[in-house]
Amino acid sequence: MATTTRIQPRALLYASGGPRYAVALAVDALGTGLLRPFLLLYGVTVLRLSTPVTGTAMTAGVVAGLVCMPVVGRWLDRGARSTVVAASMLVRVLGVALLLATPTGNVWLFATAALFLGIGNQAWPAAHAALVATVAHGRERDAALAGGRALRNAGLGAGALVATACLAGGTTALRALAGVTGLAYIAAAALAWSVHVHAHPAAAAAKDRDDEPTPRMRALLAANVIYVFCLNVPEVALPLVLVTQMHASPVWSAAIFVANTVLVVTLQVPVTVLTSRFPRRSVLAFAGLVLAASYLGFLAATSLGHGWGVPAIAAVSVVCTLGEIIYAGSATALVTALAPAPALGSALARFQLSTGFGLAVSPAVITALAPQGPAALWGSLAAVTLLSASAVVR
């Protein structure tokens, strides 16, 4: 089995689509970071919608956006690559335009804008993974996918920091942020389209496939729904536990989120390269073990009370982030390695459906389990994650 033991920045850059495509990813992530964390605030403060109505409209947009994935998969199966990436960015331009055109109190236009933003956000990961799988092969492709995730997280974090600094400007600043986001999407789409990457699936060689046994795709997709809960732990579960149950300062939640972002940006590529000497399926199963161990660590930390419990939760969050990094570096890579070239787009679309579904339901599940006590929340997450890891192994 081929492995990647060193990080060669220039080779990694070209394996990820080249300099122009890297700039497109950075600009797109920066624009997304400017708006996505404050879309709820836009609905509440600018459009004067109630918080429940705004949240419901956003959730409906995300879920409805998943409906586009079969179409995206078929488009990718026909060989389109950079065109689909550019389209996923341009459809979000339409969402931003609708957002800016929405009059105060109009929930339907806001929901439609959230729908187009959701379509773009759901279509982009599959299109990006298909493009990288076309220009890179084997373990170099895994490292390139990891590099793209690190770059995107850096852009999202930078955009969120800029947007936070601009919030003092009130509704005018939020409208300006939305406008800048739209311009960023247009620039990113133009750069991505200019790469002109197109695949010929029927003629693609099978040399990228590992000789390891192929696990059932259904089991992998079902396991992914559970694995993806880890992405909402620092954003939903830990703030909920720290602020509402342990009465800690919100600074702790913010610090954990920042640490999560920094760790992903700095460690995603090195950890993926380090684990390239092992089968992808084994690495993904190991990620489940690390995540389950972190959930049990959170359970133990909450029993320490406010004094030691809060810093203990912060420490365990590092383990959870490592599990997230191992999962992110192996899951998409495993799908691209298992899928036959003519059906790569469909496989990635199905994988994104499972990811999007997990991201959509995890906040509701977490907020339903948290009031039942730490054992219900962390014990349940640990149990189902272990079951998912065993399904990946089988």
Number of helices: 16
Give the termini separation: 20 Å
- What are the low-pLDDT stretches, counting only 5+ consecutive residues below 50? 205-215
Could you state the order of secondary-structure elements as H and E?
A: HHHHHHHHHHHHHHHH
Percent of residues in helices comes to over 70%
CATH fold-type name of the largest domain: Growth Hormone, Chain: A
CATH architecture of the largest domain: Up-down Bundle
The total beta strand count reads 0
Describe the structure.
The longest helix is centred in the C-terminal third of the chain and has 34 residues, at 305-338. Helix 8 (138-166) packs across helix 14 (305-338) and helix 11 packs antiparallel against helix 12 (250-274). Helices cover 79% and strands 0% of the residues. The chain folds into two domains: 16-202, MFS general substrate transporter like domains (Growth Hormone, Chain: A); 217-393, Growth Hormone, Chain: A (Up-down Bundle). It is built from 16 helices and no strands. It has 394 residues and is mainly α. It has helices at 9-15, 19-35, 39-46, 51-65, 69-77, 82-101, 107-135, 138-166, 170-194, 217-227, 233-245, 250-274, 280-302, 305-338, 344-369, 374-393. One of its GO terms (cellular component) is plasma membrane. This is MFS transporter. It is found in: Cell membrane.
